[in-house]
Design a protein that fits this description.
Elements: E1 3-7, H1 12-25, E2 28-32, H2 42-48, E3 56-60, H3 63-70, E4 75-78, E5 84-85, E6 96-99, H4 108-111, E7 119-121, H5 133-147
Parallel strand pairs: 1-2, 1-6, 2-3, 4-6, 4-7, 5-7
Helix pairs in contact: 1-2, 1-5
GO molecular function: identical protein binding; RNA binding; tRNA (5-carboxymethylaminomethyluridine(34)-2'-O)-methyltransferase activity; tRNA (cytidine(34)-2'-O)-methyltransferase activity
Pfam families: SpoU_methylase
InterPro entries: Alpha/beta_knot_MTases (IPR029028), SpoU_MeTrfase (IPR001537), TrmL (IPR016914), tRNA_m1G_MTases_N (IPR029026)
């Protein structure tokens, strides 16, 4: 599945939400230091609920170290400075989706490492500055997963193993 990288994330609940996203989609989360929190942070755990054990989360000392280790097929940088909409990308399972820190986005030294057609923007209204980091990651990951046909997903509605719309009288 898709690789998600958070470059110097700052807000624990956002990373916790993305850990949960990874657990639910089979994506791998790559965290690039410095982190604005400790991985034991209470807010991070609260946002990720009990999904941490189901998510693959790796940390790196630098962006370069991460690239050298995971060697992604294609790297896409999500930025308000991008011009290609996320829905026009043809994602592949080993691609890397990179998101910047919540308060400042990806720095130019990272943005200039890819061609312009790998700088991706999620459309929003003109007066908007940016989306929440965990929302942006979810939008991107679910678009990629949709393109993969929701590989390995449970599509039918279930709640705790039982069809949740089934009338108990029908049993």
């Amino acid at each position: 599945m898709i690789n998600i990288a958070l470059y110097e994330p700052e807000i624990p609940p956002n990373t916790g939400n993305i850990i949960r996203l990874c657990a639910n989609t089979g994506s791998i989360l790559h965290l690039i230091k410095p982190l604005g929190f400790n991985l034991d942070d209470k807010q991070l755990r609260r946002a990720g609920l009990d999904y941490r054990e189901y998510a693959e989360v790796k940390t790196y000392d630098s962006y370069k170290q991460m690239l050298d280790i995971i060697n992604p097929e294609t790297t896409y940088l999500f930025t308000t400075k991008g011009s290609l909409p996320h829905s026009e990308v043809k994602y592949k399972p080993k691609d890397l989706l990179v998101f910047g820190p919540e308060t400042r986005g990806l720095p130019n030294k990272i943005l200039t490492t890819v061609d312009e057609n790998h700088r991706i923007r999620i459309p929003m209204l003109h007066q908007s500055r940016s989306l929440n980091l965990s929302n942006a990651a979810a939008i991107a990951v679910y678009e990629a997963w949709r393109q993969f046909g929701y590989q390995s997903a449970i599509i039918e509605p279930y709640l705790r193993g039982e069809p949740f719309l089934q009338d108990p009288a029908d049993k």
